[in-house]
Amino acid sequence: VKIAIIGAGAIGGYYGTLLALQNHEVHFLLRSDAETVRERGWTLHTCGATLRLPEAKVHTETASIGRVDLVMVALKTTSNELLPGLLPPLLSDETRVLTLQNGLGNEEFLARILPAHRVLGGLCSVRLNRTAPGEITHYGHGSITLGCFQRAPDPFLRTVADHFTGAGVQTQTTDRLEEARWKKLVWNVAFNGLAIAAGNATVDIVLGEPPLRSAALTLMREIIAIAQASGHTLPEQWAEFQLDRSENMGAYRASSLLDYQLGRPVEVEAIWGEPLRKAQALGVATPALAQLYAVLQRLCRINAQRTAEKA
Amino acid sequence: VKIAIIGAGAIGGYYGTLLALQNHEVHFLLRSDAETVRERGWTLHTCGATLRLPEAKVHTETASIGRVDLVMVALKTTSNELLPGLLPPLLSDETRVLTLQNGLGNEEFLARILPAHRVLGGLCSVRLNRTAPGEITHYGHGSITLGCFQRAPDPFLRTVADHFTGAGVQTQTTDRLEEARWKKLVWNVAFNGLAIAAGNATVDIVLGEPPLRSAALTLMREIIAIAQASGHTLPEQWAEFQLDRSENMGAYRASSLLDYQLGRPVEVEAIWGEPLRKAQALGVATPALAQLYAVLQRLCRINAQRTAEKA
Question: Looking at the predicted complex, does its ipTM rise above 0.95?
Answer without folding.
Answer: no
